[in-house]
Design brief:
Layout (H helix, E strand, L loop, with lengths): L3 E5 L6 H12 L5 E4 L7 H8 L7 E4 L2 E4 L1 H11 L10 H16 L2 H6 L17 H19 L12 H15 L6 H11 L2 H12 L10
Parallel strand pairs: 1-2
Antiparallel strand pairs: 1-3, 3-4
Helix pairs in contact: 1-3, 1-7, 4-6, 4-7, 7-8
Bound molecules: glutathione (GSH).
The site of glutathione (GSH) has 13 residues, from helix 1 and helix 3.
């Protein structure tokens, strides 16, 4: 039995859960997942049992609790250093960390107005004030990374890294809300969608029955 457990939320909605889940799948780690359907009467007590922040994702590794998506990815990069979690080149690695942190702490308008919802198709919805600015910044990041560092693959830094895991939920948002994109961003969206583990997540998300009104229009 693997001693790694990732506690996640609803696959349809929980964008933060998707990030470390996808990274762990892509790097071939064996782990158990434990899903807590969010915003149910039982959710708060379940969350407090596993997560000091009462939020998901949380990684349980032996006695170690690691909460927060980016902290989980960094923890795994230290625990499994033989895997290429970050780009090898120092400059690329620095930029990968910058854009991952920028994703983690920013894009509030995009996140708030275009919540992740794998099973929904909402073309044109969610375009509130400030959302286009966030979209433009995301696509600028994608273009810069692809042009400067993406030579040996289809991902932001060529091969899959934590940076791609951080942006994967944005890809799903762009699909749900049918956001108009330039060709570099479109190609990147296609490349992320082609990842079998991501398709597995989407399928599971679509099969979920729970509805969280706050994340629906
Ligand atoms: N900064 C945190 C955010 C975690 C977060 O907001 N998780 C949401 C689900 S996507 C959650 O657990 N919400 C439950 C709640 O607030 O009760 C991370 O990166 O992991």
């Amino acid at each position: 039995m693997p001693d790694l457990t990732l506690v996640i939320g609803n696959k349809n909605y929980s964008s933060w859960s998707l990030r470390p889940w996808l990274a762990m799948k892509q790097f071939g780690l064996e782990f158990q997942e434990f899903r807590i359907p969010l915003y149910t009467p039982e959710a708060v007590s379940q969350l407090s049992q596993y997560s000091p922040s009462r939020k998901v994702p949380v990684l349980l590794h032996g006695n170690q609790q690691v909460w927060d998506s980016l902290a989980i990815c960094e923890y795994l990069a230290e625990e499994f250093p033989h895997l290429n979690w970050w780009p090898e080149d120092k400059n690329a690695r620095t930029i990968a960390r910058c854009v991952s942190a920028e994703m983690h702490s920013g894009f509030q308008q995009l996140r708030q107005n275009m919540p992740m919802n794998c099973r929904a198709k909402l073309p044109g919805r969610g375009m509130a004030l400030g959302v286009q600015k966030d979209i433009d910044r995301v696509t600028t990041i994608w273009r810069d990374c692809r042009e400067k560092f993406g030579i040996d693959g289809d991902m932001l830094f060529g091969q899959f890294t934590i940076a791609d895991a951080m942006f994967a939920p944005v890809v799903l948002r762009f699909v749900t809300y049918d956001v108009q994109l330039d060709h570099i961003a479109k190609n990147y969206v296609e490349a992320i969608l082609a990842i079998p583990a991501l398709q597995e997540w989407i399928k599971a998300g679509k099969a979920e029955q729970e509805v969280i009104p706050a994340y629906e229009f």
